[in-house]
User: Which sequence fits this backbone?
């Protein structure tokens, strides 16, 4: 199949950047989206030009490294998958495809489609963990956890930290990510001792990073490759309100 | 600053804290709207019921009650606006470089124009207060109840005020925008206060749309039935004045006071 690509090219962080048009010819429809970019890059390299830079790692939808806004939607309009799992058979011969980086003030562009998502790491460092005794592993069933709680925590823990939620949000808000990371631990008994500290720390770090505010439009939920529900945002709001009140009254 | 003050500042400065302020003031304002609508519907019960209700509002707690309500509403409105404008400015700053090709998957149109609908509603509130509360139009301000000349004729004012087509058109547009605002706003209250979940989603959606539609019908049925002359001022004085005003008066209704019958 033959395609026209409109790709964001930006030489470095301070470059203005612009959309450049590329013709992608003879693309096999069984190729993945990233393989299609690999083919285009080979053609660019043959001409001696700078290839299109993009993030990728596992290419099987679990690492959270690939990104890309494809035709305006993070990870494309296909539901519940990452960019690396999008296949060219989902497009039609002659299509024009817009490819842009995930855009947010908190995710500065490094080059072309490569973005810096370390803001997420700093949010996790601000409370997205449990402090446990090291040593031999504790028996798996020593702490009873109800099946609904275990399932809800597992659903939240499915977050791969790709940042599609931020990219899709009209306000570049990170609430789905922070909600998932907090809910994953707050739902479990192991997460209880540090629950309030965790929520306050992570939300404050999120605000400090310059992410926007949630306006309850749930664009994040619609594009999340792991289909994490915006219910985790409601839980984050609830947990934050409780923690803030406790902090105010000094408990 | 003591630790409570610091905590309150931190709460206001956090994204979630400010949103909780928006949600709580939103609840107060929706509660006011429901009460206001219920009171307004007394227009269908006739002049006496409507004017008794207006008299009660102005005289409860020896006249202090209405000022408690007004100050409370003013504080709620100011907090709601300051918080949302501040959040919106912050949101704009969070993505400085816009997408060249942007798509929307599921965000409703209403949710994407909240700040615009909100600010137009603010303009409407100012107009509405000047129209029916401050009564800048002396024709509406000087009306006397034909049943009791010692008090203002709220009923006559509503009938006269809504006999002006452009005023009714403005009310229809503003109330429709208000309901667009509420269709997203009421559902958002549940999410922001952490009350929404997969279990409660259907109920919160139904409640949110139910209140929105109820308010839309409840508020607009009054100006529309008045304009279509389904509800009218049966007392002679009012009727004469309406005929006077509807034809050529942009600002409403200007009766001559000597037309108003005395109390006896």
Assistant:
């Amino acid at each position: 199949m033959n395609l026209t690509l409109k790709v964001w090219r930006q030489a470095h962080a301070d470059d203005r950047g612009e959309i450049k048009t590329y013709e992608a010819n003879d693309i096999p429809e069984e190729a993945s989206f990233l393989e299609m970019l690999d083919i285009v890059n080979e053609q660019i390299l043959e001409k001696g030009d700078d290839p299109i830079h993009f993030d990728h790692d596992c290419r099987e939808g679990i690492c959270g490294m690939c990104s890309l806004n494809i035709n305006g939607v993070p990870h494309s309009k296909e539901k519940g998958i990452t960019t690396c799992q999008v296949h060219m058979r989902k497009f039609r011969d002659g299509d024009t495809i817009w490819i842009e980086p995930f855009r947010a003030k908190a995710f500065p562009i490094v080059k072309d489609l490569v973005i810096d998502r370390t803001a997420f790491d700093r949010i996790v460092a601000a409370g997205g963990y449990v402090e446990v005794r090291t040593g031999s592993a504790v028996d798996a069933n020593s702490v009873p956890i109800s099946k609904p709680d275990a399932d809800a925590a597992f659903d939240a823990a499915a977050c791969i930290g790709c940042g599609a939620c931020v990219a899709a949000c009209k306000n570049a808000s990170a609430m789905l990510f922070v909600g998932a990371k907090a809910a994953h631990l707050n739902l479990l008994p192991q997460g209880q001792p540090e629950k309030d500290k965790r929520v306050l720390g992570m939300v404050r770090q999120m605000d400090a990073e310059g992410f926007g505010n949630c306006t309850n439009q749930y664009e994040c939920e619609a594009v999340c490759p792991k289909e994490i529900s915006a219910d985790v945002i409601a839980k984050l709001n609830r947990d934050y309100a409780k923690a803030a009140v406790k902090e105010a009254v000094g408990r | 600053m003591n630790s409570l003050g610091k905590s309150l500042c931190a709460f206001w400065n956090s994204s979630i804290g400010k949103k909780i302020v928006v949600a709580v003031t939103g609840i107060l304002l929706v509660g006011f709207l429901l009460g206001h609508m219920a009171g307004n519907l007394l227009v269908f019960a006739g002049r006496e019921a409507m004017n008794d209700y207006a008299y009660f509002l102005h005289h409860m707690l020896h006249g202090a009650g209405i000022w408690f309500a007004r100050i409370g509403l003013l504080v709620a409105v100011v907090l709601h606006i300051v918080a949302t404008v501040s959040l919106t400015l912050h949101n704009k700053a969070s993505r400085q470089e816009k997408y060249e090709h942007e798509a929307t998957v599921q965000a409703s149109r209403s949710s994407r124009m909240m700040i615009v609908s909100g600010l137009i509603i603010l303009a409407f509130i100012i107009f509405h207060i000047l129209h029916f509360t401050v009564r800048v139009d002396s024709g509406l301000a000087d009306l006397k109840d034909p049943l009791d000349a010692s008090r203002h004729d709220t009923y006559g004012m509503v009938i006269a005020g809504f006999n002006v087509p452009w005023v009714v058109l403005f009310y229809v547009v503003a109330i429709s925008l208000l309901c667009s605002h509420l269709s997203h706003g009421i559902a958002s209250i549940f999410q922001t206060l952490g009350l929404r979940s997969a279990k409660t989603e259907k109920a919160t959606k139904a409640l949110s749309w139910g209140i929105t539609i109820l308010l839309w019908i409840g508020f607009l049925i009054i100006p529309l039935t008045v304009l279509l002359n389904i509800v009218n001022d049966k007392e002679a004085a009012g009727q004469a004045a309406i005929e006077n005003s509807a034809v050529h008066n942009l600002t409403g209704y200007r009766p001559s006071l000597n037309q108003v019958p005395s109390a006896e």
